[in-house]
């Protein structure tokens, strides 16, 4: 069953059928993303364990430097009220450092899932820099996309009122759709696929709205998981009040765990996006699962024949 309809085919169908196709693709993306995430929880730790240790050491050191003199009033140094300007700058630096390490974990995770890469546990490469730069460009694309939408909604508000206000409410989601159509560049860069921005836009033809809905749902999921993580640590803190070592550990665990949860959710989502567009390309070339099965069968038969021939040669050599 083709779950990835081309836009020119969809345009010829009634609106109801088009919406049904969008819903079908959205459900497919969401189901596959969640299934991928649940199946690879261990992969996240196996591929990123070295970065996780660095993440723990970083947050413990920063938490020790930012510990309030009267003790923590919240779960972590990242959630404490900012008392001085220097604290705000150091906390911003901590946020950036967590993000950079998070990207490294995401790259290792995606590479293991998509191409079964066995990279060195702690690796600094141009690949990571390229992924970070692409993420910055994606963020700028999202912000730039909001500008004309905001102007248009302001003009419509002056003329029609309600229609302009409706556009203003939907503008962030439209911007999210644009960003997601370009977002396949991230997993492509992680696996050294020379995909361009134009390729990403074209490859996701007909997938923009389902991708945007999926990203929205997964964002809500990530936010909920981080919230639950905060509540869990807060509950643990209520049982260990007054112990400075345990407070530092709890302070470290919140940003570290939040980073891992966000990486796990969004890396799984974008790996799914990348996998589905590659499935589309394979379908256009006529490479169905049956094709791969036949190729595997032929390869196995050839291998067995070669093994038999080699065994016969060995027997003749012994004689």
UniProtKB/TrEMBL annotation:
The chain crosses the membrane at residues 48-68, 88-110, 131-159, 165-186, 207-232, 252-277. It comes from the Bacteria. Keywords: Membrane, Transmembrane, Transmembrane helix. The keyword Transmembrane helix applies. This is 4-hydroxy-3-methylbut-2-en-1-yl diphosphate synthase. It comes from Roseibium algae.
């Amino acid at each position: 069953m083709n779950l990835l309809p081309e836009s020119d085919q969809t345009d010829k169908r009634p609106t109801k059928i088009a919406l049904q196709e969008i819903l079908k693709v959205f459900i497919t993306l969401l189901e596959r993303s969640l299934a991928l995430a649940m199946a690879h929880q261990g992969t996240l730790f196996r591929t990123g364990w070295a970065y996780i240790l660095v993440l723990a050491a970083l947050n413990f050191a920063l938490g020790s430097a930012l510990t309030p003199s009267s003790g923590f009033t919240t779960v972590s140094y990242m959630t404490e009220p900012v008392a001085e300007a220097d604290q705000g700058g150091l906390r911003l630096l901590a946020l950036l450092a967590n993000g950079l390490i998070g990207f490294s974990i995401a790259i290792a995770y995606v590479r293991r899932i998509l191409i079964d890469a066995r990279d060195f546990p702690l690796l600094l490469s141009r690949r990571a820099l390229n992924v970070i730069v692409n993420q910055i460009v994606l963020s700028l694309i999202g912000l730039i996309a909001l500008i004309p939408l905001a102007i248009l909604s302001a003009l419509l508000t002056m003329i029609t009122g309600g229609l302009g206000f409706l556009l203003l409410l939907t503008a962030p989601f439209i911007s999210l759709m644009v960003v997601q159509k370009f977002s396949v560049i991230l997993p492509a860069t992680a696996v050294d696929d020379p995909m361009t921005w134009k390729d990403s836009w074209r490859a996701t033809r007909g997938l923009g709205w389902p991708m945007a809905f999926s990203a929205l749902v997964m964002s809500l999921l990530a936010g909920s998981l981080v919230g639950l993580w905060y509540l869990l640590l807060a509950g643990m803190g209520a049982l260990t009040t007054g112990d400075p070592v345990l407070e530092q550990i709890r302070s470290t665990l919140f940003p570290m765990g939040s980073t891992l949860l966000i990486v796990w959710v969004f890396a799984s989502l974008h790996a799914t996006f990348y996998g589905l567009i590659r499935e589309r390309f394979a379908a256009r070339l006529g490479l169905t699962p049956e094709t791969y099965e036949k190729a595997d069968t032929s390869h196995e038969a050839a291998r067995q024949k070669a093994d038999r021939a080699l065994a016969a040669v060995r027997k003749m050599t012994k004689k």
